[in-house]
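pasting for the record
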Amino acid sequence: MPPQELGQIGGEEGFGPWGNLGFFNDIGPSAQAFAKIISNLIGIMTIIAGIWFLIQFILAAVSIIGASGDPKKMESATGKIRTAIIGLVVTVAAYALISLLGGILGFEFLNIASLIEKLSP
């Protein structure tokens, strides 16, 4: 069954001076552009998180090498490694959780364009 047409807000005359502008008549290209921006931002943030993990991991490894057996320096360096790994796990888990939650709720949170198109009348 096709979706029922809701019609113009405010009847045939529209709702105030903006009623008949037709913003929602062709929302597809706008939604696709917005989805591309969000997708690129998520990708860039994920890449930045991966690069940050590598930098922190390498710096902590250098700290372990330079610790010369000092327990305080070793503990500090292993804490940095632990923090870097937790940050990477949180980044990957957030992406997976958003995808899983979207599948359970029936929304595609990672596909913003389809959500925006569903909002249009």
